[in-house]
Structures are given as C-alpha cells and as structure tokens.
Amino acid sequence: MRLYVPATLDELDTLTSGRITLGPRRAHAATPALVAALAEEDVDDVEEVEFVAQLAAADDSLVAIAANPSVPWLRLVLSVDVPDAHVTVPPVDATADDASYSAVEITAEVTVAVVCAHVDEPDAAGDVQAALSGDDEAIERLADRDLLWYDTTELSSVPRG
C-alpha cells in the first residue's frame, strides 16, 4: 500500500541505500473512506485522492516537529510502499478532523524503500515556527505552499532549513 508518512528532516539521516526503517506510527493513504468522501465532492482522480492524503501527512509532520522542536522547522512527507500486512485502516471517526479519512497505522517495524520525499522549501521555516506558536495566518500560508518533490536519488541534497 502506498503510504504518505509524516516525518521530520532528521529522519532522513537514518536512510540506508534509500531505505528507511519505520516503527509503528500513523501515516496516510488513499483509503476507501477517503475515496468515498472525495467522490461526494466529485473528486475521483486517484492522483487527487493521493494528494489529499499527502496533505494530511504534511499536517501531521507539523505535529511531529512540535513534539521535537530541535529538528529543522520544515515539513517532510515520505512516500513509501508498505506491505498490506503491516498496515491497518482504523474506522473513521466522524467527529474527528478530515484527516481521519486518510489515516492508517503502520503496525510493525518495517524497512522499506523511500519512493520520494515532499519537503517545504527552506523559507517556509518561519511559517512553520509561527504556525506552531498558534499563528492562524501562518497556518494558512503553509496550507497554500506546495511541498517540493525529491526523487529518492536526491534525498541527500534536501535542504535542512
């Protein structure tokens, strides 16, 4: 299953030959619940559904940065393919935020190839810091920013802020 894993830039340091070991954690995917929810909004293109899952992972990356403020202040989403046996799709909590529609859980430690990474451009660091301080305008600016795409062969050149 293709997953969009919220991460922090320090996790890129753990890559070995383009592979990363991920422990149990929340990630995002084009789940049946997300597909159904977006179909109600006339979104049925698989790439658009995957993009929504990636955006949810970017939001969760912000949460990961808040939990470890010593890491670079840039959001990171890793695209990886995880065997279905190591992924569960929890039931959607209708009272929760929209991100619950794409939420999945990696249930066991797994080493997988990183397909690509999506990272904020370095000048987003100020908005990340402001967003984590509760600045609603910074949150909106981050929502409007596109994450930069890096191929697995380019991961060593990802800017660190």
Describe what this molecule looks like in 3D:
- The structure is a single chain.
- This protein is α+β, with helices and mostly antiparallel strands and 161 residues long.
- The chain has one domain.
- It is built from four helices and eight strands, in the order βββααββββααβ.
- Strands 1, 2, 4, 7 and 8 form a five-stranded antiparallel β-sheet that branches. A three-stranded antiparallel β-sheet has the order 3-6-5.
- The longest helix is centred in the middle third of the chain and has 22 residues.
- The relative contact order is 0.23.
SSE arrangement, N to C:
EEEHHEEEEHHE
Number of strands: 8
Helix content: 25-40%
From the N-terminal CA to the C-terminal CA, the straight-line distance is: 31 Å
The value of Rg in angstroms is 15 Å
Structural class: alpha+beta
Overall form: globular
Multimeric state of these chains? single chain
Provide the β-strand percentage band. Answer: 15-25%
- Major beta sheet summary: 5 strands, antiparallel
Number of helices: 4
Q: How confident is the prediction overall: mean pLDDT? A: 94
Low-confidence parts, pLDDT < 50 over ≥5 residues? none
How many domains? The number is 1
InterPro entries: DUF6912
Pfam families: DUF6912
